[in-house]
Amino acid sequence: MNIPAFSLFSAVSELFVTAGVLYSLLVNLRGRELPFRVMAPTLAFEFLINITYMTMRASQADKDVALSTVMKIFYATHGILSLLMFLLLAATFLISMVDLSANRASWYARHRGLSWTLIFFWMVSVSTGEAIFVGRYLLP
Fold first, then answer.
1. Using one digit for the tens of pLDDT, what is the confidence trace for 10-49?
2. Does a structural domain hold residue 63?
3. Fewer CB in a 10 Å sphere around the end CB: N or C, the chain?
């Protein structure tokens, strides 16, 4: 099957975005300052590229007659989770920026349990997205 260039780019770039997010959060959870210079461009890229890609794909999802209803529901659930995780990550990052300007520990450092929960669901979101890509384009 011919893989659309934007799909391939999005799938590969999502791995780099995830590396940037995990690096930033784990560094902060280990007691060091949140690396804003890594996290800010990572989230900006995620918004500009991957959220755009998801929006484009979501607008075409109902038109794909080759997908079963169960798969359409799975795709929709993945899309909703991915968008929710991005919004939560962006919101907590903005709160952490305010924290830094007020000379406080970041939101992630102050809410370690919730931060690990955020990481878990981010990984679920990324894993399901990569599984969709593999199932759709790489498996027969």
1. 999 999 999 999 999 999 999 999 999 999 999 999 999 8
2. no
3. C
Whole-number Å distance between alpha carbons of 107 and 127: 25
At a CB cut-off of 8 Å and minimum separation 6, what does 114 contact?
none
Express each pLDDT in 58-88 by its tens digit. 767 666 667 788 988 898 899 899 999 999 9
Q: What six digits make up the tokens of 41?
A: 């461009």
Residue 85 lies in a domain: yes
Q: Check: CB of residue 139 under 8 Å from CB of residue 99.
A: no
Is 75 inside a domain boundary?
yes
Range of the domain at 98: 5-58+68-138
What is the spatial distance between Cα 10 and Cα 51, in angstroms, rounded to a whole number?
A: 9
Backbone angles phi, psi at 14, to 5 degrees: -60, -30
Q: Is residue 31 part of a domain?
A: yes
Q: Which residue has the tokens 């679920």?
A: 124
Q: CA 77, CA 71: separation in Å to the nearest integer?
A: 10
Looking at residue 30, its amino acid is R
Domain count within the chain: 1
